[in-house]
Amino acid sequence: MVSEANWDDLRLLLAVSRRGSFLQAGQLLGIAASTVSRRLTQLEEALGEPLVERGVEGCRLTSRGQSLVEVAQAAEAGLRRQSVTGMSALDSELSGSVLVSVGEGFASCVLEAASRFTALHPRCTVELLVAADFHKIVRGVADIAVRTAHLGEPSLIYRPMGRLAYGVFAAADYLRRFPQVTPATAVNIGLLPPLDMLPQVRAAKAAGLERAQISVNSFALQLDAVRRGLGVAVLPRVLAKDLIELFPQLQLPDMEVYLVTRPQALKQAHISCFFAIVQQVLLDALALETVESDASGARAEGGSDPGFPVCYA
């Protein structure tokens, strides 16, 4: 029964849920990973059922563990409300931590939002988790996520932020060495699975851009390789500063960007406040891309530079 789990037990389970391993949960709480494991094992024995599935890649909650995490989140919110009620007017500002899960390309946008948020609310903190695991927010590991896919989970709130337009880009140095480059002859800086299944990448391959002699698992590495003149790549136009767009006849699909959270998370004032700030940062960044992308399309025949700030996933 839930009554057999006290707040200290729930706090341990909540930390494991948020960090995904005993080691990181222990680091968050300032205790040894072995202590976290031992105490959760004792709790599982008291309840008579497993709460955490241990694996080489970390921990996953069982359905029973997830139900207790929801209890822990409610208890945490209640303790926070009690704490806030007991504060003086001077100390009643927002406090708490926000954990955000993003693809690496959106990190700069979230960092900008975090800077604005913490400047307004010095007692708040923002933790940025750069990861491609879409399921972290469903499991309650993250409070907010930036996604480029809508998985349709009914338990989540999706806010559309705008669209990313894509093209094939190369550096001027590469084109000086290969002035007659075509989709069939271009050295494509490819992406390793599962990133190679992005709709834009599949469309480019279907159009003949298949010669991927170099493949990487990071958008940052891909961009660096293109800037160094090692090949061409399918990139969002928002990322294409100082690069030249090739093959304007290729029609690559746009990608929708969503800001995602859980209804329970938005009930916490500090998370709701940060959500509003990061939403505005993303809307501004993607609105700028839309304007510049339209202008770039009009100049595509001349291969001109869009010159956008970096913000993509």
Could you explain how this protein is built, in words?
This protein is of the alpha/beta class and 313 residues long. Among the domains are: 1-92, Arc Repressor Mutant, subunit A (Orthogonal Bundle); 166-253, Periplasmic binding protein-like II (D-Maltodextrin-Binding Protein, domain 2). The chain is 42% helix and 19% strand. The chain has 10 helices and 12 strands. The strands form 4 sheets. Strands 4-3-5-12-6 form a 5-stranded mixed β-sheet. Helix 5 (107-120) links the parallel strand 3 and strand 4. Helix 1 packs across helix 2 (22-29), helix 1 (7-19) crosses helix 4 (63-85) and helix 5 crosses helix 10 (269-299). It starts with 6 loop residues before the first helix and ends in a 14-residue tail after the last helix. The relative contact order is 0.14. Mean pLDDT is 82; it is low at 86-91 and 295-313.
Compute the number of helices. Answer: 10
Mean pLDDT: 82
- Spans of at least 5 consecutive residues whose pLDDT stays below 50 are 86-91, 295-313
Beta-strand fraction estimate: 15-25%
CATH topology of the domain at 1-92: Arc Repressor Mutant, subunit A
The value of Rg in angstroms is: 23 Å
Widest sheet: strand ordering: 4-3-5-12-6
CATH class (first level) name of the domain at 1-92: Mainly Alpha
Largest sheet: 5 strands, mixed
Quantity of strands, as a count = 12
CATH architecture heading of the domain at 1-92: Orthogonal Bundle
Could you spell the SSE succession in H and E letters? HHHEEHEHEEEEHEHEHEEEHH
